[in-house]
Amino acid sequence: MNNTIVSYLSQFESYKGLLESFSSMFGEAGPGLLTFLVFLIGCILVVTVLATIGGLGTYAERKISADMQARMGPNRVGPYGLLQFLADGVKMFLKEDLIPNKADKFIFGLAPLLALVGVFGTLAVLPFSSGFTLANLNVGVFYLIGIGSLVGVAIFLGGYASNSKWSMLGGMRGASQIISYEIPVVLSLMAIVLMSGSLNFGGLVGAQGGLPQEWFIFHNPFTFIGFFVFFIGALAETNRAPFDLPEAESELVSGYHTEYSGMRFAFFALAEYIEVFVVCGVGAAAFLGGYNVPLNLGGEGILGQVLQILVFFGKTLALYYLVIMIRWTYPRLRVDQLMTLCWKYLTPMAIFNLIGCALWIYLLDGKSVWDMLAAFVGSMGTGGGH
Amino acid sequence: MEATYSLDVYTPVVILLFLGAITVVAALLLGKLVRPHNPSESKNTPYECGEQPVGSAWSFFNMRFYVIGLIFIIFDVESALMFPVAVVFKKMNEIGRGGLVLVEIMIFLSVLISGIAYCWRKGDLDWVKSYVPGKDTSNK
Amino acid sequence: MDNVIFIISALLTVTGALCVLLTKNVMHACVYLLTCLLGVAGLYVTLGADFVAATQLAVYVGGVVILMVFAVMLTGGPTSQSSNKFGIVKVPMMGNAKTYIIGIISAVIFALMAYKVLSRIIISIQAGELPAFTETVEKIGFMLVTDHVLAFEISSVLLLGALVGAAIIARPRRGV
After folding, report:
1. Cβ within 8 Å of C, B 67-126
2. Which residues neighbour C15 within 8 Å (Cβ) at sequence distance 6 or greater?
């Protein structure tokens, strides 16, 4: 069982050799130092890759929207405009740092930091592959929910600290929307926890298989509905359209980050795009089979790990594409519609799904629809043979 | 696998939280070297579509946000209690105690569902309150 | 690593709590409380209670802090001056030099007494003697559905009471 990337790597001979050389160099502190270094490298790698994906997310967003609206989109910087996000980053970096004179300067500076800290914290448990998971915490799902809720606090504080009416409205809406939609998301994840009997992501993914009929989304009707409840809730939690009320540009100028400029704004945007990726990753891990490679191709070795990472990123990016598509397809909801959808449709449905999954496990021994269909067809076949 | 408890698992969490904080602080400090800094009175005024801002934005807050917060905490605590039960449900089912746990889950959830049903019926989940002067909405 | 996590979380907790006491801005106090609660979650982790730590994160950091800032905004938010709603610009000191001296002396005496009582427990826990376990969640779950099932069910009634109470308090009243 691989709890962390270190415990995965420690299977290999070369790592053991490295461990010995570290022990001889640093004595007692050697193994601890090596563990720390591996974690540090792993974390920096994950953060870099995901920051790049977040940056490319802004590019993809514009390119896909341009495609859908028969425009060109960014096409000047780099091939196909791919480096546009770097140019944007440099521009943000060189921008003047404006703080409104009536703002609460302490909280104004703290809010982007909290947003980024919250999002980076969620990356620790994201299951990229069976070996390359930074930390497969026993309470992974619940930890992710908890640390991710820092973003909601950050959005509210950002809106509050600006002391601008638009920001304040955006922050209030953002915080109430995020906490409201957390309930259906948590409840539909709980149904999956119930199905797999595990609260860590390794267990969640391990309870599924590589082929679509082994995924939890197609396991039974309740999880099928649960996926959509989760996905809609996740869209709202990350403030993506059609739930982008906290930053609704047609009514609130820019919402909670109206007064933010330069790097501070960039961090809010980065946090949002990484959070979308994380949420898609959680959806892929919990409902779409996660990193399981179909037919277990590639085996246990390095090749298998690479394939697993590719499968995970493939599923996650497919969901990411869907999120962007939805943004440019659907009109924005009104606040009252938003709250009605959450409290009167999604939450009751999520509770219903939870009970349904529990009943399914109890009455049908947790067999999936396909298992029963196969058994039924098999019995038909033998019955017809007589 | 019986393993002694080790906090090594939490190392990445600590590192990532610090990375998040360091990234923000470092970028802002480094940016200070290259970015211009010439603030002016009108530049630092909160944006209000070109008008002079009237009063502070820190005004009284609508009560319904608070209600949402309260209901959220109740559901959060409920999920904190339900998660361990959800984790063991499958194992309890395997040793033949599934029915008992199922009944317990049903009782727990049905009490909560009755709470939601009450709020729904009384109109507390409505964002736009149907408030008619002179009519007591609490006895709808 | 154990010590590092403990020191970081203890520092977060203590500084957060101190700043909550020392700041006069209610909103800043909420933010400091957030760091304090984060630190407490870290302390739970060092004690091996990972599920309690996650609960601390989800319920307190994500829920209670948001509820608190909402509550602060319900009162109109902090004003730019350090005045309270009675119009007193300067917040009066709580007590004078004499009360502070008496307070410090009694705190020291109390700390000594507490140390005397707790010293055996404190010393008997050595570094590296943390509890050995695999998954706290499963243990909690088994306890909740077997031994403590009554508490589990009663807590749902408690939550129901809280839900209904919250709804009733927040209902718009006539003539107010």
Report:
1. 67, 69-74, 76-81, 83-88, 91-92, 97, 100-101, 104, 107-109, 111-112, 114-116, 118-119, 122, 124
2. C35
